[in-house]
Design goal:
Layout lengths: L1 E4 L2 H7 L4 E4 L7 H11 L19 E5 L2 E2 L11 H4 L5 E5 L5
Amino acid sequence: MIRVMLPAHLRTLAHAGGEVQIAVEGQATQRSVLDALEARYPALRGTLRDQVTQQRRPFVRFFACEQDLSHESPDAPLPDAVASGAEPFLVIGAIAGG
């Protein structure tokens, strides 16, 4: 099971707790995790990625094992610690401004 941590506003939208656990078929990648997350919580469709292009929304960031994975390929394998459930996949709302 993959552990996913959601920010407060997305937990409210999904009616989920702070950490959700999802099963991923095949290799754990950003795409497979987000596909499984959106399948389990349909209210999240379109909030993390554009529904047509599947591109990450500008003010959403993905982290795992203290690394920003936001600009990595969505099909790149996630770290083994995330795939095994030892570490969570974090969805963070970015802050803009100066």
